[in-house]
Amino acid sequence: MKKRVGIARAIALPIKYLFCDEPNSGLDPLTSRVIDDLLVQITEDLGITTVINSHDMKTVADIGHKIIFIYQGKVGWVGSNDHLERGYDENPALSAFFKASF
């Protein structure tokens, strides 16, 4: 419930961008899915850009459009969720992180 309240507070005023830092941290898988769906709906309904910082590769693969993988402080890979599987085959660090997440 705290996550939802935080999101509601963030969108109470007109915004162009919504920044979320680990929106699914500490949540069970079902509630994580609810938050993912809520973020997608808010992004579409308000016509905003949502930037999500996450270690949750399920969320990244499911709702990410433009994905930037940062490794050791540098951009390690950029692509879409459609290209994520191919991308992680091309990048050893991304591959290890992606495979460890599932």
Description:
- The protein is an alpha+beta fold and 102 residues long.
- The protein has helices at residues 2-10, 29-46, 57-63, 84-90, 92-101, and strands at 17-21, 49-53, 66-71, 74-80.
- The strands form 2 sheets. It has a two-stranded parallel ribbon with strand order 1-2. Strands 3-4 form a two-stranded antiparallel sheet.
- The longest helix has 18 residues, at 29-46.
- The chain is globular.
- The model has no long low-confidence stretch (mean pLDDT 85).
Could you give the topology of this structure?
Elements: H1 2-10, E1 17-21, H2 29-46, E2 49-53, H3 57-63, E3 66-71, E4 74-80, H4 84-90, H5 92-101
Parallel strand pairs: 1-2
Antiparallel strand pairs: 3-4
List the defining traits of the structure above.
102 residues; alpha+beta; Rossmann fold; 5 helices; 4 strands; 50% helix
Would you kindly provide a brief summary of this structure?
With 102 residues, the chain is of the alpha+beta class.
- According to CATH, the homologous superfamily of the largest domain is P-loop containing nucleotide triphosphate hydrolases
CATH domain class name of the largest domain: Alpha Beta
Amino-to-carboxy terminus distance: 26 Å
Determine the number of helices (DSSP H or I, runs of at least 4 residues).
5
The CATH topology name of the largest domain reads Rossmann fold
Q: In one word, what is the shape?
A: globular
Could you give the count of β-strands? 4
SSE string: HEHEHEEHH
Second CATH tier, the architecture of the largest domain? 3-Layer(aba) Sandwich
Q: How would you sum up the major sheet? A: 2 strands, parallel
- Kindly name the structural category: alpha+beta
Please give the order of strands in the largest beta sheet: 1-2
Q: How would you name the oligomeric state of the polypeptide chains in this document?
A: single chain
